[in-house]
């Protein structure tokens, strides 16, 4: 395999976008005439609906390589990317499993403390020169990264589907979403500025400057193996920081492909490293190393608390994007069809393995029956199959054990009197035991006594609860220690304002199920995290504010 690198950058405002190579004939290539970088990103995602005929899911490294236009993006030999080079630790490797068929498609490196320390040392050495460049110069590198990701979007999506399981159209959408952060921060870096404060004494002048926070560490999850990297790396690099990334050992291939493209784009050696291996070993070094000044993490609340505690010993700056327990409120005056459409999108995208996914559907009594009937019908009509199959609506969960929690929550609800409307079981005939059918459970007036009401299922189970009035709905929605995202459907705009303000969540969708893009402040409150990612808010996390006072003027 070539030792090159992957990540993203945006393109000039007017150009014809055609990927340099098309997919094998099994798939349609993506080609769009784009009037602007932003619209080209959207068009990549939209084009995902045009998939070619079905193709058997990869079951070996060679079968996956055969699907790619650029096999150098696929690192199957068990490596990390440290200080500008792919290298392997001496430890035994772990298999990377395709959840659609349970087969090994690659090996994952088993890097530990030694490799992590090497990456941090390289980041510390490389950062001064990177930070000394102008924001415009750093932005040119990020834009080149974007361009390379766009050109290789099909390959990146196939790699992601093979290791993570999501439908190819969703993987393509994630690549476009991931790339949007490179687009945004390639420009946003040059907008970072300080200020001159009005003097309080005639002999003094006071100046505020913004500087990169320092070497950063990022720990990213398996459910969005590309987007969670660029959402962190793009603002960090734009601000002048260097970064060491620890991706999930279950989905390292996307991270390594992005590293390959980043190197090709001209990201200097040491500025970006990807260390694949044991979470506790790598995380332990990241949280304790005095040269790491910031840690950013996306994952469970339990692990986020542990990392925050470990970071306290060196008083690190932390950003924590943690778990959710999203309510989805539907009032009697709502457009039920629109509510069902948004409920489907917020529940079953990525097989429900999304931190912002709807976990509790709260529906007012007057439209409850209509809502559950329509929801169950649309859910039952979903195409559940391997992610590379044409027309796939939902793929497997990310590993063979992942459906267990969904099974437990459904069993608990049914034992306490709830009604199963559709799904509720695994379907190994799809290819492996990681397939769990999309499920709708009518819970009626039962709520707090059900496990699924208080716990994040992180799977394709829609539990629907009934409420009587606005106050009851708000009380039910806020009855959780989590506070990431919430949704509400109503035609009454006064109610929308009231409910939106009353919901104790960092993000609220009002008659809207899509919350996230590159310009919004993504993040939660309560035990769902600290800080925000995205937009003008995201780069702030990677900057220090310094006061300079000039005296005896």
Topology (SSEs and partners):
Elements: E1 15-18, E2 31-34, H1 37-46, H2 61-65, E3 80-82, E4 85-87, E5 94-98, E6 103-108, H3 113-132, H4 135-151, H5 153-164, H6 168-188, E7 195-197, E8 205-212, E9 215-219, H7 227-239, E10 243-246, H8 252-265, E11 272-274, H9 279-288, E12 292-298, H10 301-311, E13 317-321, E14 326-330, H11 336-348, E15 358-364, H12 368-380, H13 403-415, E16 419-422, E17 439-444, H14 451-454, E18 461-467, H15 470-477, E19 485-489, H16 493-502, E20 507-510, E21 529-530, H17 535-540, E22 543-550
Parallel strand pairs: 9-10, 9-12, 10-11, 12-13, 14-15, 14-19, 15-18, 17-18, 19-20
Antiparallel strand pairs: 1-2, 3-4, 5-6, 7-8, 8-22, 13-21, 16-17
Helix pairs in contact: 1-6, 3-9, 4-6, 4-7, 4-8, 5-6, 5-8, 6-7, 9-10, 11-12
The gist of it:
With 553 residues, this protein is of the alpha/beta class. The chain contains 17 helices and 22 strands. It folds into 2 domains: 259 residues, Aldehyde Dehydrogenase, Chain A, domain 1 (3-Layer(aba) Sandwich); 192 residues, Aldehyde Dehydrogenase, Chain A, domain 2.
Structural summary, described in words:
Residues 88-546 form the Aldehyde dehydrogenase domain. Pathway: Amino-acid degradation; 4-aminobutanoate degradation. This is Succinate-semialdehyde dehydrogenase, mitochondrial. Keywords: Oxidoreductase. The protein has 553 residues and is α/β, with parallel strands linked by helices. It folds into two domains: 72-322 and 534-541, 3-Layer(aba) Sandwich (Aldehyde Dehydrogenase, Chain A, domain 1); 326-517, Aldehyde Dehydrogenase, Chain A, domain 2. 36% of the residues lie in helices and 20% in strands. The chain is built from 17 helices and 22 strands. It has helices at 37-46, 61-65, 113-132, 135-151, 153-164, 168-188, 227-239, 252-265, 279-288, 301-311, 336-348, 368-380, 403-415, 451-454, 470-477, 493-502, 535-540; strands at residues 15-18, 31-34, 80-82, 85-87, 94-98, 103-108, 195-197, 205-212, 215-219, 243-246, 272-274, 292-298, 317-321, 326-330, 358-364, 419-422, 439-444, 461-467, 485-489, 507-510, 529-530, 543-550. It has a seven-stranded mixed sheet, with helices on both faces. Strands 11-10-9-12-13-21 form a six-stranded mixed sheet, sandwiched between helices. The chain is globular. Mean pLDDT is 91; it is low at 1-53.
């Amino acid at each position: 395999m070539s030792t090159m690198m992957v990540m993203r950058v945006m393109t000039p405002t007017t150009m014809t976008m055609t990927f340099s190579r098309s997919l094998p004939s099994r798939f349609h290539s993506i080609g769009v005439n784009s009037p602007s970088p932003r619209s080209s990103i959207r068009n990549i995602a939209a084009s995902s609906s045009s998939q070619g005929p079905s193709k058997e899911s990869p079951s070996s490294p060679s079968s996956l390589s055969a699907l790619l236009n650029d096999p150098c993006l696929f690192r199957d030999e068990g490596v990390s990317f440290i200080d500008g080079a792919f290298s392997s630790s001496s430890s035994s490797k772990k298999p990377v499993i395709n959840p659609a068929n349970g087969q090994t498609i690659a090996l994952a490196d088993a890097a530990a403390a030694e490799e992590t320390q090497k990456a941090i040392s390289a980041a510390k050495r490389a950062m001064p020169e990177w930070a000394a460049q102008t924001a415009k110069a750093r932005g040119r590198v990020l834009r080149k990264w974007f361009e390379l990701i766009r050109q290789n979007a099909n390959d990146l999506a196939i790699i992601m589907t093979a290791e993570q399981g999501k439908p190819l159209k969703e993987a393509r959408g994630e690549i476009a979403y991931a790339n949007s952060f490179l687009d945004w921060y390639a420009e946003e870096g040059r907008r970072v500025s300080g200020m001159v404060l009005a003097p309080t004494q005639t002999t003094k002048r006071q100046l505020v400057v913004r500087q990169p926070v320092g070497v950063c560490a990022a720990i990213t999850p398996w459910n969005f193996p590309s987007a969670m990297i660029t959402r962190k790396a793009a603002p960090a690099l734009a601000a002048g920081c260097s970064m060491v990334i620890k991706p999930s050992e279950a989905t390292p291939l996307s991270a390594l492909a992005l590293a390959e493209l980043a190197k090709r784009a001209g990201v200097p050696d040491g500025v970006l490293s990807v260390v694949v291996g044991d979470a506790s070993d790598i995380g332990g070094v990241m949280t304790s190393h005095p040269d790491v000044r910031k840690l950013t993490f996306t994952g469970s609340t339990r692990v986020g608390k542990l990392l925050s505690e470990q970071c306290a010993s060196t008083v690190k700056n932390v950003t924590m994007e943690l778990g959710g327990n999203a309510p989805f409120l539907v009032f009697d005056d709502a457009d039920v069809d629109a509510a069902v459409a948004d409920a489907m999108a917020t529940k079953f995208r990525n097989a429900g393995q999304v931190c912002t996914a709807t976990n509790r559907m709260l529906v007012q009594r007057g439209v409850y029956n209509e809502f559950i009937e329509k929801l169950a019908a649309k859910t039952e009509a979903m195409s559940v199959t391997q992610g590379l199959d044409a027309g796939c609506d939902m793929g497997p969960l990310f590993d063979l054990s992942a459906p267990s929690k969904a099974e437990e929550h459904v069993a608990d609800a049914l034992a306490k009197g709830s009604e199963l409307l559709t799904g509720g079981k695994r379907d190994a005939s799809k290819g492996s035991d990681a397939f769990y059918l999309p499920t709708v459970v009518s819970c009626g007036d039962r709520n707090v006594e059900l496990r699924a009401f208080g716990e994040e299922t992180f799977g394709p189970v829609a539990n629907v609860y009934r409420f009587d009035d606005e106050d009851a709905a708000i009380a039910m929605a806020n009855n959780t220690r989590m506070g990431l995202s919430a949704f509400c459907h109503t035609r009454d705009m006064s109610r929308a304002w009231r409910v939106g303000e009353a919901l104790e969540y960092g993000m609220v969708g009002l008659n809207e199920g899509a919350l996230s893009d590159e310009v919004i402040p993504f993040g939660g409150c309560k035990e769902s995290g600290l800080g925000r990612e995205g937009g003008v808010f995201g780069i702030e996390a990677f900057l220090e504010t310094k006061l300079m006072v000039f005296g005896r003027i």
